[in-house]
Amino acid sequence: MYRNFFKRVFDLILALIALPFWFIILLIVGPIIYFQDKGAIFYNASRLGKNGKIFKMYKFRSMKMNAPDLRNEDGSTFNAEDDPRLTKIGKFIRKTSLDETPQLLNIIKGDMSIIGPRPDLPEHRALYEGNEGRKLEIRPGVTGYNQAYFRNTVPWKERIQNDIYYINQLSWWLDIKIFFKTAMSVLKREDVFVSEKGTNSNQNTDIGMKG
């Protein structure tokens, strides 16, 4: 009952309560993002949703316009504190996770949940093996088991298995624990960036990604 009904109800209630506070963040952060390089405020990233449906995930833009898309060796998005693609405000909103707050709109639309697996890039679906496709059984989350307990410290394939563990154990109590653990991690700014850059990269000219 919780997975199929109440989880969505709680998502909507909490997102609607948080929405006025997010508008305040938008009024403060939005102009700073724009005036630093006269670029777009938002970055709309294509992601895999529930049952493999592709949707646009909203984020505040944290990278310079037309920054190259760099990947780690496991195919995940490169993410480091000294990343030259980050703007000054971008580094701050990454550290504080403010760049993720526009996903409140994704929650209201029904694309995402507050708690769930972090959504993958559409092309990652072809790389799933064995039971990894189970990650798509539920709505992806703004935060989740991986983000709360590991942030960016574990490889992509391990994150998928953690997501499947979450799906198997999904409950109201687990979501509550993940929610508060995430809050503590964000406040402490733990493991926001990874320290090792993979060797693979491609030169897409998207505004910039963070997996």
SSE map:
Blueprint: H1 2-37, E1 42-48, E2 54-60, E3 69-70, H2 88-95, H3 103-109, E4 113-115, E5 141-143, H4 145-149, H5 156-169, H6 172-188, E6 201-202
Parallel strand pairs: 4-5
Antiparallel strand pairs: 1-2, 3-6
**Which structural category do the helix and sheet elements fall into?**
alpha+beta
Mean pLDDT: 86
Please indicate the count of domains.
1
Q: Mind summarizing the main beta sheet?
A: 2 strands, antiparallel
Shape: globular
Cα separation of the termini: 30 Å
Beta-strand content: 5-15%
Instruction: State the low-pLDDT regions, or none.
Output: 195-211
Radius of gyration: 16 Å
For the secondary structure, the number of strands is: 6
- Number of helices, where a helix is a run of at least 4 consecutive DSSP H or I residues: 6
Describe this structure in words.
- This protein has helices at 2-37, 88-95, 103-109, 145-149, 156-169, 172-188, and strands spanning 42-48, 54-60, 69-70, 113-115, 141-143, 201-202.
- The chain is an alpha+beta fold and 211 residues long.
- The strands form three sheets. Strands 1-2 form a two-stranded antiparallel ribbon. Strands 3-6 form a two-stranded antiparallel ribbon.
- Mean pLDDT is 86; it is low at 195-211.
